[in-house]
Amino acid sequence: MQLDPASGWCQGVDICPSPNFNARPSGEISLLVIHNISLPPAQFATGKVQEFFQNRLDVTEHPYFEGIADLRVSAHFLIERDGTVTQFVSCLERAWHAGVSSFEGRETCNDFSVGIELEGTDDLPFTDAQYQALTTLTRQLQSAFTAITAQRICGHSDIAPGRKTDPGPAFDWARYRAALAKAALEDKE
After folding, report:
1. What are the pLDDT digits (tens) for 164-186?
2. Is 117 an annotated catalytic residue?
3. How many domains does the chain divide into?
4. Which end of the chain is more exposed for a tag (fewer CB within 10 A), N or C?
């Protein structure tokens, strides 16, 4: 996968354009937010996340969908359990993933962040393929947007405490950070 900084789109990933975005305000892209999602909850490889982010979810297919029928949300990326990466919104645009949020005193994190959804739940371990794809994608983002340092990568729960819990306790932050550090060293060689 290769991120084109001029367009904000990745080559070598699935593209599934979402209408749920708008222009970012001027300023640096300086934060990466990690989320999790599964639709219906705890069911994987259903294609329903893609439908949800494209406002095409058939709310009659599952009772859970009725509660989210009116939401208009998106993320820049989704990483499925098998490591497949799908992009919904250019990184240069504002995806609607963070909602009411704050990082280091700055509110409205959608304005300056990239959002990555991992297919999963708070309590089920994420897969090796997901960690590998997340590490590769993160390094691409850090190369294009140098203000996204290791210290500026967080979970949705960190920017919306009390409101959001993802990526949850099953996400192995130590594993992810170690993989990023290793990849950064390899990039320097």
Report:
1. 999 999 999 999 999 999 998 88
2. yes
3. 1
4. C
Domain that holds residue 155: 2-188
What tokens appear for 63 in the block? 């009772």
The model's pTM: 0.97
- Distance of alpha carbon 185 from alpha carbon 59, whole angstroms: 46
pLDDT at 95: 98
- The region that residue 115 occupies, defined by phi over 0 for left and psi between -120 and 50 for alpha, beta otherwise, is beta
Tokens of 148: 């996204």
Exposure string of 43-63, with b = 16+ CB inside 10 Å and e = fewer, is ebeeebbbbbbeeebeeeeee
| Catalytic annotation, pick one of 61, 66, 104, 117 | 117
- Name, in order, each residue with C-beta under 8 angstroms of 165's C-beta and a sequence gap of 6 or more: 122, 156, 157
